[in-house]
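To illustrate the input format used throughout this study, we show a single complete record. The first block contains the structure-token representation of the backbone; no residue identities are included at this stage. The design step must infer an amino acid for every position from geometry alone.
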């Protein structure tokens, strides 16, 4: 048995790619190891969404250099979004890398590993033909919840974003394959699935034509054994009334919507090429809350986009106060290769981005704390996801609304459903106790 150590740097799609890579490698005799020093192969599954993410790759490669020098036969590979974007440039910059594997070439990995036996270096960033993904041996991290890809790539070209260049054109998987994969997972004991795509709401199935994401949800809602269906990420521009009504109606679809807004200013949204304005976005939030009054809503915010004036930034803060998100992810704008906004005038100074992001977090901290405080004393159904290794005897569970709750309990409860009563509210977490 050979050993592979995989480091994963990116989003859920990147994590799921790691699960597929593990499965493909296990079929040719590899087992995963947590210890890089005992690995026959080390793979870095990279992310390119912001400059910092890309830097992580190069600093990690620096750390791994002594190991590679000691053990030259160890295969060192770079995969993921930076691999797709930089291709052969990675060999130039870091000559001790052996393998560069793009996001689209993953199914070819076993063959490429074989090629490495006769060649010093292997590069593949071409398109592979994805056959039915449910036929791959995907080695999932957990037994009770699972990612399922429903759509790959992105055609939206938000002006700041690298993803259309690292993941290629939008392409939906046939719904029959998705349902088949969901059924097989449920039969294996999975109770929660998360549907993955850069833009799940533009899912189009050949069989059902337009607007078939709601239809797909309906088919998955009927899969026996599944209790929770989540999805990430939907784009506000195609959040239709039909999708909202479908969510509200289907008992297994969780009451949580991650709806990235990016900015509260219509002027900045236009520069970002987001294809909606503040008014449209707020109208969609109102529609979600009309249909599901207690729905949890989360978002992504970028500060310091080129041309963001003080008044635009204030619009973002006021939007946070108006929507009252349960939680947000906030980012400083970062220039990315190929993304148009790198050439836009009025780039914002680093210090101002830092200051604006701090203000965003300050406003949100208060809102999240208020929302969490309102939950104290209530009891929620949780799926127990993990035991906390740092505090033995404590577990983390997730509510249908995607709130994480920590409580005491024994490790063998991981993977089961339970009820937890909330006892303490903090800005970024909730504490509770298990109800017998
Ligand atoms: N497809 C998803 C987002 C994927 S990237 C969507 O459209 O909602 C996740 C988040 O990273 C984005 O929502 C955005 O907030 C952030 N992001 C993307 N590109 C960025 C950049 N160049 N600088 C800073 N943040 C960025
Ligand atoms: Fe990037 Fe926009 Fe596509 Fe999301 S929708 S992945 S932000 S281009
Ligand atoms: Fe995901 Fe990062 Fe690629 S966010 S799609 S791994 S650039």
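Output of the design step:
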């Amino acid at each position: 048995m050979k050993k592979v150590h995989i480091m994963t740097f990116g989003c859920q799609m990147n994590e799921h790619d790691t699960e597929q890579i593990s499965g493909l490698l296990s079929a040719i005799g590899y087992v995963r190891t947590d210890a890089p020093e005992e690995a026959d192969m080390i793979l870095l599954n990279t992310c390119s969404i912001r400059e910092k993410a890309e830097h992580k790759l190069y600093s990690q490669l620096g750390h791994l250099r002594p190991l590679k020098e000691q053990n030259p036969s160890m295969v060192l590979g770079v995969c993921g979004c930076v691999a797709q974007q930089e291709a052969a440039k990675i060999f130039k910059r870091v000559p001790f890398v052996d393998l560069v594997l793009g996001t689209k070439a993953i199914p070819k990995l076993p063959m490429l590993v074989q090629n490495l036996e006769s060649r010093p270096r292997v590069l593949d960033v071409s398109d592979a033909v994805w056959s039915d993904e449910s036929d791959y041996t995907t080695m999932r991290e957990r037994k009770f919840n699972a990612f399922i890809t429903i759509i790959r790539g992105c055609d939206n070209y938000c002006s700041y974003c690298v993803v259309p260049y690292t993941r290629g054109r939008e392409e939906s998987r046939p719904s029959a394959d998705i349902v088949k994969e969901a059924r097989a997972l449920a039969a294996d004991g999975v109770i929660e699935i998360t549907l993955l795509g850069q833009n799940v709401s533009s899912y189009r199935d050949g069989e059902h034509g337009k607007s078939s994401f709601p239809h797909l949800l309906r088919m998955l809602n009927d899969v026996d054994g599944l209790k929770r269906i989540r999805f990430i990420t939907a784009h506000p521009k195609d959040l239709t009334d039909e999708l909202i009504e479908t969510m509200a109606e289907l008992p297994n679809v969780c009451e949580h919507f991650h709806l990235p807004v990016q900015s509260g200013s219509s002027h900045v949204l236009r520069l970002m090429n987001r294809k909606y304005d503040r008014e449209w976005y707020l109208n969609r939030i109102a529609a979600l809350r009309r249909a599901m009054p207690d729905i949890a809503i989360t978002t992504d915010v970028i500060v310091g986009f080129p041309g963001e004036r003080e008044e635009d930034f204030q619009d973002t803060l006021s939007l946070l106060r108006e929507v009252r998100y349960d939680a947000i992810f906030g980012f400083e704008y970062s220039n990315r290769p190929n993304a148009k906004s790198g050439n836009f005038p009025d780039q914002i100074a680093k210090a101002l981005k830092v200051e604006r992001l701090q203000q965003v977090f300050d406003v949100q901290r208060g809102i999240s704390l208020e929302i969490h405080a309102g939950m104290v004393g209530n009891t929620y159904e949780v799926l127990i996801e993990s035991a906390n290794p740092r505090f033995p005897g404590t577990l983390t569970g997730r509510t249908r609304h995607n709130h994480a709750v920590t409580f005491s309990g024994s490790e063998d409860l991981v993977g089961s459903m339970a009820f937890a009563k909330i006892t303490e509210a903090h800005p970024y977490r909730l504490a509770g106790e298990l109800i017998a």
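Structural context for interpreting the output: The radius of gyration is 22 Å. The chain has four domains: 2-124, 142-254, 256-373, 379-435.
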